[in-house]
Specification:
Chain lengths: 325, 362
């Protein structure tokens, strides 16, 4: 076991798969020589050579399209989109193309691409760097969207994603890259895709979250504990498809739920979770299921960021609303 | 400093390459490809077959028996001359008008009809047929071609990726990104732009200030050539040369073929009389690829009217049989569609699969 930050765990996952499978290729803008702007690919080019870990021209659509072509010749590309706010440049290659290739080949062609990309607020980035755009991806059939909240999951989920034969959008919250370390096995292991994790058990209310909001939810749960409210915290880990089974099981026990996302409120993952809960468990509910989300504006870089972003206080407020309904 | 210098000689630099003129005469003996009499006849057979297929497809579409269809008449030399220069292991990433190349690369005709009807079986390339289904998004296939060409290079394959788009496609960002990536990585790739003069209704003059599309290769640092797209020998020779250079590690090539589509953009209501003159149509029909190749073959004593008529009858029978086979294929179901989205069904689709199995079993 070693102590690793999330970014180290991500590098370790890529190293593991580069070693395991010669078809794995890692590439993107500044990914080779420079090791990535966040150093996610630090040392990988040196270790595996320029043929397998390389820089690309600065063009996201080209990176997406090239990944598809490489997958068509049997490779397992792991491209990086430098910041997920740049995804609009590669939307067709992702949503119009790689997500549809299995369908478009009548089910015959796998598309084992893992698009890695940093996102998320709270680190004072310029415009179009911090936005939470997982909802855009989740609306596209054929894609999986994975968002780890900690180093252990990041390594195991990234290895599972790279081994998966369908495209995965793997989103890495920038604030979590170096915010804490934890024990991560140096050997290979996987964490199942499409499976949520119960991060904290509780009996009064279920908090559903993902990415950095898992930590805000855990912090909120600690505060609520002081007031005698026992909150269960679920980390979705895969936000498309959502593991509703784990959520429903929890809600049937706690009878109350608050769904937390960093993204704007409209048309997000949280809306999906709320719908599913009321469709499948309405008779178990003691109160409406509420959402914690950002306002429906563009991301508030950087002066109003702290107010714009949901945090443990806004979560505690919503939980109190649910408890006092 | 002379800022005019950049474009001064560009038209001469990208002068149209031709081997066979409109009269069916060889005008460029030096570049006459090394093709046997049987090869020459095969090229003619494929062009005639494809012209007949186009006529039948238009008729079938009008009867409501075909789905999406983009007419091909006029473009046979561009499509089939380039495809004839390929080897089986080469990978085709076609645009939506490029069904003929897929058929000659190994896609059974009845599957091409199923593709047109939106049936997923029309997208299943038979084992060993290196191709993907026709692309609907203009230019999306071009960046993918750079990827296939890079994949072939990495694997040391003696093969190329070839893609097709039109003059409108050469305006897309993906066109520039694709040829630039291919150049930067030395991808084993060929980019064919069939310049048929109109992107639906917008003439090529409005697409760009560039005098030729071939010259766009210069900015990507790759080779570019403008070819008479009504001359099947010139298209074949240019593609053959591009292929050889690509597999020898000499980089990708952009080929612009000057051609014309006689019919509408697609069969979904386009009316070319709104944007083209009859004079222009007539002028291009004089350049017809089949007419000039027929003259050439007849002068060599390799072709006759009887042979062509026999071929036409045989083609019509083949088309009839393929339509029948397509008709006999069970209809596409939603259950099928759910099943081909992922390798393993995710939980949401498992639930929906049950729902639609139930609906579709009734």
């Amino acid at each position: 076991m070693a102590q690793m930050t999330m970014i180290q765990a991500i590098t370790d996952a890529m190293r593991t798969e580069l070693k395991n499978d010669e078809n794995v290729l890692v590439f993107g803008e500044d990914v080779g020589q420079n090791g990535g702007v966040f150093r996610a690919t630090e040392g990988l080019q040196k270790e595996f050579g320029e043929d397998r870990v390389f820089d690309t021209p600065l063009a996201e659509s080209g990176i997406g399209g090239m990944s598809i072509g490489l997958a068509l010749t049997g490779f397992r590309p792991v491209p990086e989109i430098q910041f997920f706010g740049f995804v609009y440049e590669v939307m067709d290659a992702i949503s119009g193309q790689m997500a549809r290739y299995r369908y478009r080949s009548g089910g015959t062609r796998p598309m084992p691409i893992t698009v890695r990309s940093p996102f998320g607020g709270g680190v004072h980035t310029p415009e179009l760097h911090a936005d939470s755009l997982e909802g855009l991806m989740a609306q596209q059939p054929g894609l999986r969207v994975v968002i780890p909240s900690n180093p252990y999951d990041a390594k195991g989920l990234l290895i599972s994603s790279i081994r998966n034969n369908d495209p995965v959008i793997f989103l890495e919250h920038m604030k979590l890259y170096r915010s804490f370390r934890e024990e991560v096995p140096e050997e290979e292991y996987t964490v199942d895709l499409d499976k949520a994790a119960v991060k904290r058990e509780g009996t009064d209310v279920t908090l559903v979250a993902y990415g950095a909001m898992v930590h805000s939810s855990l912090k909120a749960a600690e505060e609520l504990e002081k007031d005698g409210i026992s909150a269960e915290v679920i980390d979705l880990r895969t936000v498309s498809p959502v593991d509703y089974e784990t959520i429903l099981e929890s809600v049937k026990k706690t009878n109350r739920a608050v769904v937390v996302q960093e993204a704007q409120k409209q048309a997000g993952i949280a809306a999906n979770v709320v719908s599913e809960i009321q469709e499948k468990a309405i008779l178990h509910l003691e109160a409406p299921v509420l959402r914690v989300a950002a306002p429906d504006t563009v991301y508030a870089f950087t002066q109003a960021e702290e107010v714009w972003l949901p945090n443990h206080n806004t979560i505690v407020e919503k939980v109190n609303d649910v408890m006092n309904f | 400093m002379n800022l005019k210098r950049t474009l001064e000689n560009i038209e001469n630099q990208f002068e149209m390459f031709q081997i066979l003129n409109e009269e069916g005469e060889i005008v460029n003996e030096d570049f006459m490809p090394d093709l046997s009499d049987e090869d020459l006849k095969e090229i003619m057979r494929r062009m005639v077959y494809t012209r007949i297929l186009d006529q039948r497809s238009i008729a079938l579409n009008r009867q409501g028996r075909l789905g999406f269809y983009a007419p091909t008449a006029g473009q046979e030399a561009s499509q089939l001359g380039s495809q004839f220069a390929l080897e089986k292991e080469d990978f085709i990433l076609p645009g939506y008008r490029d069904v003929p190349q897929l058929i000659w690369h190994g896609l059974p005709l009845y599957q091409a009809f199923l593709f047109s009807r939106g049936h997923h079986k029309g997208n299943q390339m038979p084992e060993g047929v290196n191709a993907v289904s026709p692309q609907i998004i203009i230019g999306a296939q071009i960046t993918q071609t750079a990827g296939v060409g890079l994949g072939y290079k990495k694997r040391g394959e003696n093969a190329v990726a070839i893609t097709y788009t039109g003059d409108g496609g050469a305006s897309q960002g993906d066109f520039y990104e694709g040829i630039n990536f291919a150049g930067a990585f030395g991808a084993q790739a060929i980019f064919v732009v069939q310049n048929n003069r109109f992107a639906i209704s917008v003439p090529v003059e409005k697409q760009s200030a560039a005098q030729t599309i071939a010259q766009k290769a210069v900015a990507a640092g790759i080779e570019g050539i403008q070819v008479d797209g009504m001359d099947v020998l010139a298209v074949y020779a240019a593609t053959k040369d591009a292929r050889e250079r690509a597999v020898n590690g000499e980089g990708p090539t952009l080929i612009e073929t000057l051609t014309y589509r006689y019919g509408p953009h697609t069969m979904a209501g386009d009316d070319p009389t709104r944007y083209r003159t009859e004079d222009e149509d007539n002028e291009w029909e004089k350049k017809d690829p089949i007419v000039r190749f027929r003259k050439f073959l007849e002068a060599k004593g390799l072709w006759s009217e009887e042979e062509e008529n026999e071929l036409i009858e045989k083609t019509k029978e083949e088309i009839k049989a393929a339509v029948k086979e397509a008709d006999n294929t069970p209809k596409q179901t939603v259950t099928d569609l759910i099943g081909i989205m992922h390798e393993e069904l995710p939980s949401n689709l498992k639930e929906q699969m049950e729902e639609y199995k139930e609906k579709e079993s009734k």
